[in-house]
Amino acid sequence: MRVLKVPEDGPKRKLLDAAELLVSEKGFDLVSVRDVTGAVKANVAAVNYHFGSREGLMDLLIMRLLGPLCEERLKALEHAERQRAGKMAALEEIVKAYTKALPATASRLGMGEAYFMKLAGRILVLGDEALAPPLAVLRENVLERFLAAISRSLQETPASELAASWRIFDSGLSQALVTLKPAEEPAPLISQWTAFGTRGLGGGKLPKEAKKDDSQGLLFDF
């Protein structure tokens, strides 16, 4: 990754903040260098000067959010497992560790929950090829750690089946985050997807409150 340090202030930070806001609103593909520099009234060459390229800017944007989110998810999983005092963590506790890390990361970064989660959703729907290699490895490590914990909790379910179900759940959650509106309270969405993931991975049915045409992205059955 070309740029590793997030600036605290100055023109470089202004460009990064502008890019984050634009990506949150429009997605990665629709944000150009001119969009970013225009938002802060900077010369179009400023992105190349401070970040090396548009790719360098987007790498830093992704790293700033995805790195802490992955760390929070692993920390939450470790906490859930420690709380069981040597026993296997229950499936609901594992899923909750994954979803509750979202508001925890927003708080850690000093961002509004809805804003952070929408931006995180934009990042999480990206394929590994769009990530800098260290971040792709970090995200894969999080996946493996959670799948291992779930496999211990649901010993009768084949690992291959768990992996496929978890990826569908994770993809749906990520897409649901993108639908959040700036003033929306994210807690109901997090609670719903915690219940949805728990029941789905455990072989149960959708939560009663989940509807097939729900705009939050409940697009599949397990």
Q: Notable features of this structure?
A:
222 residues; mainly alpha; Tetracycline Repressor, domain 2; 9 helices; 66% helix; disordered C terminus
Topology:
Layout: H1 10-26, H2 33-39, H3 46-51, H4 54-83, H5 91-109, H6 113-124, H7 133-153, H8 159-178, H9 187-201
Helix pairs in contact: 1-2, 1-4, 1-6, 4-5, 4-7, 5-6, 5-7, 5-9, 6-8, 8-9
Task: Summarize the structure in words.
- The protein has 222 residues and is mainly alpha-helical.
- The chain has a domain at 63-201: Tetracycline Repressor, domain 2 (Orthogonal Bundle).
- 66% of the residues lie in helices and 0% in strands.
- It has nine helices and no strands.
- It is elongated and about 60 Å long.
- Mean pLDDT is 87; it is low at 205-222.
Strand content: under 5%
| Total of DSSP H or I helical runs spanning 4+ residues | 9
Described by its quaternary structure, the protein is: single chain
What order do the SSEs take from the amino end to the carboxyl end, as H and E? HHHHHHHHH
